[in-house]
């Protein structure tokens, strides 16, 4: 096997990063050009590579929670709330089925991501930018110039709430489904925040009244097949910098969650959505719910497609402070974090990139 350390010696990394970024073609451009080896900018440093080469354990599995009939049967709802609480405390991850979003909408959303990435290159390049103030952003790796190694994926970012773009600003090939899917996801998000509030023993509207579901950022990821998947990652180990993430993934798989120092697959379940707790929810619940590290493996097959919907108002100039919810505190369980604005928290997260370190640590009391 190739030694990553040997490949990483003696080259002008910044120049290669700039040249790659200025091409505006992303990872898909590399694959389309027939690249047979992973460029050096994507190769994980030796120490990080060792950390991300663990194996999965199939002894346990991510909980799959059926939301069917949740609003019609109080006894069933109580049981579902219990399962949501256990999953949020133990795993920080769960999957939901019978969530109310039609399968054809899920499939069309994935198809829309494929269409965007596989359309005429000149049209796609028109969206390529690193100016995140724009309503629609396409690029390869938000942290391309700050992370230790680039990840093998391209991403389309669309801020869909509370101030969605004008339809004409969205890419034509996925415009309609982006609008429809975002509306459906936001409806589901409000329902999930009610369940999570109940799971915390709070009024069902508590988290929604805190505006946890106000902002919605839709990240559509495209992971082309990789010629040397053992040398790089689809997405490096990280925890999410939001309140909650709802993920749609295709059938290829590759998503893994770190649980008790072992990597576990989050297997694709037909019609399911993956839900995971974000850093900001861990902060306001004072560690009652866990934002856990996860990653995506690079794969030789593909493209793998996923859509991650982040509930956060990180792009809004809000001065609202978030800190542990007072109803969850006691003399035995005092606040573990100081207050922060969402914008400041995310700015710190983005500045350091996906370096495998939790951004919550700098707020711990």
UniProtKB/TrEMBL annotation:
Domain of life assignment: Eukaryota
Residue ranges occupied by any Fe2OG dioxygenase domain in the UniProt entry: 212-314
Keywords recorded for this protein, A-Z: Dioxygenase, Iron, Metal-binding, Oxidoreductase
PROSITE patterns: FE2OG_OXY
Signal sequence, renumbered to the chain: none
Any Pfam family matching the protein: 2OG-FeII_Oxy
Presence of the UniProt keyword Ion transport in the record: no
Record GO terms (molecular function): dioxygenase activity; metal ion binding
Family recorded in the similarity comment: Belongs to the iron/ascorbate-dependent oxidoreductase family.
PANTHER family documented for this protein: OS03G0690500 PROTEIN (PTHR10209:SF859), OXIDOREDUCTASE, 2OG-FE II OXYGENASE FAMILY PROTEIN (PTHR10209)
Name by which UniProt lists this protein: Non-hem dioxygenase N-terminal domain
Species for this entry: Dillenia turbinata
Lineage: Eukaryota, Viridiplantae, Streptophyta, Embryophyta, Tracheophyta
